[in-house]
Design a protein that fits this description.
Length: about 325
């Protein structure tokens, strides 16, 4: 392939810019032309496409968000939307597409694959919920952002002898809550992938108080319920001086960590290698610390992301 394009889609994730930079620079290094598509699939359909050169991706490796912008575009799930997108790609002479994003973005790449257009998926989402990879771009930054917040909240919780319910993002996955909860010494972690009993949560808080503990931190994944609802249900078992903190979109922004920058650079360079070989219909990932590429249709239709529930069991043992 001599001419490829890049788009970022769905929720932004720290490290997306590093991936855009890697794809662009590696492709130019290999003698290819690179085009950037603004606003994801929405921009693809209307032809919001421009050629990228080295200066266009300078000074972005350290920036959060996405220089190519992003947008939700459910219309791309339709045949009409997909055909319009392919028409625009052909209009610009583009032979392959790199899609950086999460589940919805991958399904768009899969749709193009099924219509015969070569696309490569790069997992970019803070949720870490994409099958075919142990880690996604943005996840490491997100859990470090949550961890900093947990550490700060602990100071206040201890000063006032309070219970804090800290709600974190993650869509239907509990990875952010799991990793940040273990790293932050949470008393309990509530995730969609594991059942919990509110009475047991209440008993754990009481046991801590009996030992003289001055605070209780509960990290709640948004896929279970909202923090306000959780606190209300908890109050039925006693007055634990509960306060709620919803971290929300603050978790999605910020400068990416070194790990996310390196991961994004690896994924971007690998995607270009695959397209240069004429390969498409793939998604790249990191499994057992090795770069891998798998069929995107098989990955989405037959595989499922599973969080590391050993972390849940570990936290239960450490926070008894």
């Amino acid at each position: 392939m001599k001419r490829i394009a890049i788009l970022t889609s769905g929720g932004d994730a720290p490290g997306m810019n590093a991936a855009v930079r890697a794809v662009t620079r590696k492709a130019i290094y290999e003698g290819m032309e690179v085009y950037g598509i603004n606003y994801g699939y929405a921009g693809l359909v209307v032809g919001d496409i421009r050629r990228l050169d080295i200066p266009d991706v300078g000074d972005i490796i350290q920036r959060g968000g996405t220089r190519l912008f992003s947008a939700r575009y459910p219309e791309f799930a339709t045949e009409e939307g997909q055909l319009k997108g392919i028409e625009q790609l052909k209009k610009f002479g583009i032979e392959g597409l790199v899609v950086i994003g999460g589940d919805g973005s991958y399904h768009g790449a899969m749709a193009l694959t099924k219509r015969g257009f070569p696309a490569i998926g790069i997992p970019g989402t803070i949720d870490n919920d994409i099958p075919g990879t142990d880690f996604t771009i943005g996840f490491d930054t997100a859990i470090n952002t949550v961890l900093e917040s947990i550490d700060r909240i602990r100071d206040t919780a201890t000063s006032h002898v309070r219970t804090f319910v800290i709600e974190v993002m993650g869509r239907n996955a509990g990875d952010i809550a799991l990793w940040a909860g273990v790293a932050g010494g949470a008393d309990d972690i509530i995730i969609p992938e594991h059942e919990f009993d509110m009475e047991s949560v209440a008993n754990k808080i009481r046991d801590g108080r009996d030992r003289g503990k001055k605070h209780c931190l509960i990290v709640l994944a948004e896929g279970v319920m909202g923090a306000e609802e959780f606190a209300e249900q908890l109050s039925e078992y006693g007055n634990f001086h509960t306060r709620v903190s919803v971290l929300g979109h603050i978790v999605r922004g910020g400068s990416p960590t070194a790990r996310d920058r390196v991961l994004a650079s690896k994924f971007g360079g690998y995607a270009v290698d695959l397209l240069k070989e004429g390969k498409g219909g793939l998604c790249v990932g990191l499994l057992d610390n090795k770069l891998v590429a798998a069929d995107i249709v098989d990955t989405l239709e037959n595989k499922k992301h599973n969080p590391d529930l050993s972390l849940y069991q570990l936290n239960q043992a450490l926070s008894f």
